[in-house]
Fold each of these.
Amino acid sequence: MALSEAQLAQYMDEGYLVVEDLLNASVLSPLIGEFEAAIDTKARALHAAGQLSQLHEDAPFETRLALLYADAEAEAAQALWHVGQGKHHKTAGMFAVWTCPALLDIVEQVIGPEILAHPQFNSRAKLPDHEQTVVPWHQDMGYLQPDADDTFMVNFWIPLVDAPMETGAMQVIPGSHRWQTLSHERIGFYDGLHEEDMPDYARVVNCPVDKGGVLMIQSRTVHRSVVNSTERVRWSLDLRYCDRRKPTGRPDRVAQSAQDWLHLFPGDSARLDPHAR
């Protein structure tokens, strides 16, 4: 699915774009199933060790991790949260999302056919009222090495559940992609930008996105996520792409094919999409 002329113009001119109904359930369901299985495995291990009082087996994907986290002892709670957090989830389901034609068609439209799945990616399980998942204003470029400062990156924020603002969805500052890469410093658990350092003319836009939709930003677009004030978990992915011939700003090795993915991550198995490109 290509962007319309108006959508592409907004993305290039304002540095962000919400695209609704881009990914169907068949793309996201295998990855969600992997997260559900990983949480269940961890929960059963902690329950057997006496560190978790209930398994909450009947709770849906949107709430089970939050219920488990609330019932677990402190160390066990962190272990549960980390199942869905970070860049360690290198699986067949993740590869299928990363290589789905709906995303790649848009990336090709923006940067051309020489596409690299950027090594900086994350899955995020944003728990209710969880300080560690409130991310301050920042530019993604602020987390990368300066050799990639001129590399155009197409960044996707992809919710795995409906993400209205009250679940801790994203806010962006339109036009901030034209700013230079700003100096980031530690704010709480993350490197970020202080709100008082923003230009007076900065305008904040809320970006709620339902499951199946995506938020597109650029690597210098200033953005943040707010607190999750619901009882649900806001599950999401951060994926980004760039021209494979350009610096990535990261030293990590990168999979450029299904075969390379299996070579780099041999335990991550057999369910790769045969139609992935």
Amino acid sequence: MSTIVIKIGGGEGIEPTALSPEIASLVREGHRVVVVHGGSHETNVLAEALGHPTQTITSPGGQQSRRTDRRTLEIFEMVYCGKVNKAVVESLRQEGVDAIGLSGIDAGLWIGSRKEAIRAVEDGRTFIIRDDLSGRVERVDAAFLNLLMDAGRVVVLTPPAVTEDGIAINVDADRAAAATAGAIGADELLLLSNVPGLLRDAADQDSLIESVEREDLEHARSAAKGRMKNKVLAAEEALAGGVGRVVIGSAGGEGAIERARAGRGTVFACGAVAS
């Protein structure tokens, strides 16, 4: 059976626990599964309620990320490591899955480096942010994840990651899922969110790009807007890391995982990235 990494987005309208019955079915079929989840909408709601509303950073290339000061990171951890992670674990255990919830900090599962300086664009002006607690995953403890999976457990992973010197950092969950999929030799990476896939026109839900081959990559990068840029980059990174196939698809509705595995979404196959 195959190894599958399923990243469940945290955007508005997504209920991560709704996918638990499908995940349980995959486990019963003998697949090895790692779940990575987000929690962005819940974090935005809590941050607003606590009087520390979310700020978004836009890079010169158009990629968007959360401005992460220390208070934002604390709120982020409340939602990602607390509310959402434990809700997913609880729902999986109710389905008979031996799930364990961990963050990238735990046991140093995701080791990364903090960005010392971030270039951001606002109102046409470029400026530098030097105190942001964000970065990217550079190393995944695949041995520990494989140990847990070999023991029959489903690992439910969430940001943040941690630096070599023990500092928690916010990392993009799509790219962290890609790094994880590559490290454990996953056959499939499913990036599920509140959109049907990569769209030619972000305002037109019927403009789905169904597949991306190597010659289509530049067009795919250009078509991606906002947070979708991170998903396309994650797909490229996963394929470059040896993952067999990546699907960007919808987390909504019954049978979301089955639809994605059947290619309902945007499919990036191994030939899309030069080896």
